[in-house]
Structure formats: C-alpha cells, structure tokens
Amino acid sequence: MENPWALNYRTIDTSSRIKANSAIPAGFVVSKSEKLNKRKANIDQQQKDQNDIQKLKVKRAYEKAFNSVKGIFMNVIMMFMSGNSINQFTIIIVGMLLSNPIKALRQTNEVFKEFENENGDNSFLLKPKLTYIALSVAQLLVGLYKCASLGILPTTTSDWLTFEEPKTFLESVHGGTTF
Known about the structure:
Elements: H1 15-21, H2 32-67, H3 72-82, H4 88-106, H5 108-111, H6 126-150, H7 157-160
C-alpha cells in the first residue's frame, strides 16, 4: 500500500498552472504578436517549472543519501560501549555494523527509484548516488575497524599460513592483583 503522505514526483502536473494563467476573457481579441509572445512565455514557464522540479528532485535525493549516515554516530557509540572483548553483545553489534551497509549498497537503485524521470535521463542522480555509496562504504569501514580492534580480522602472516607461529610477546602486563 502506498503511503498517502509520500510525494510522488512523477505525478506532478505543471501544465495545470499554465492553463489557469492563460484564460482569455470572452470578447477579447488577441493579436498575432501577443499570441507569439504568450507561447514563448508559456514555453519559458514550462522549462522553468521543469528545472524547478529537477532541483527539487536533486535536493530530496541528497536528503535521502544523507539519511543513511545519521545512524553512524549511534553505531560508533555502541561500538565504543561494547568494548574490545569478544562476547555475544559485541558480535551482534559487529554483525549489524557489517550487514547494514552491505544491504544499503545492494538497495542503492531502489532507494533512488522515486526520483527517476520517465524519459530515462537520470544523470542528475549520479552525485547523490555516489554520496550514498561513499557514506555506506564509510559505515562498512567503521565495522571493519571494530573487527580489527577485536582481533578477528586476519591481518598477520600467522593467520594465513599454518606453519607460521603466532608472535609471542616478551612481556605482559595484567591488573593490579598479585598472586
């Protein structure tokens, strides 16, 4: 079911404004030069209306692109609060940090489908889409940083080679309890 409060940009009819302003009173005779000027004015008004609609679509597309970044700060706070130990809560947060941007990247075209033109010229959506993709990749990098801080990313040679021994530390420091 379609949301009754959502605005569908494809159904905006700009011709009704032009027809309402172009009513000629009965008995009024219009010269050929006035008709020509009026046609030019109507064409200019239609082009202006199309440009205004295009600008509105671009503005709304950027708003849609930046909606995905609103949750990144909450994710960073949750990441900080979960700590660096591996437990259920941390794994759930890491799963969310990695899965949400991947879902967002897969749904890029569906997110911007409402702003597309019927004539197929959607080049104006390139920058908002690239912004959306860049912000989703930034969220994915936050999740990968959390994986690296937990030590679950394979970044050393001992993670990849079975004959390589993990690095042993010469010293270790523990809490203030003495045994």
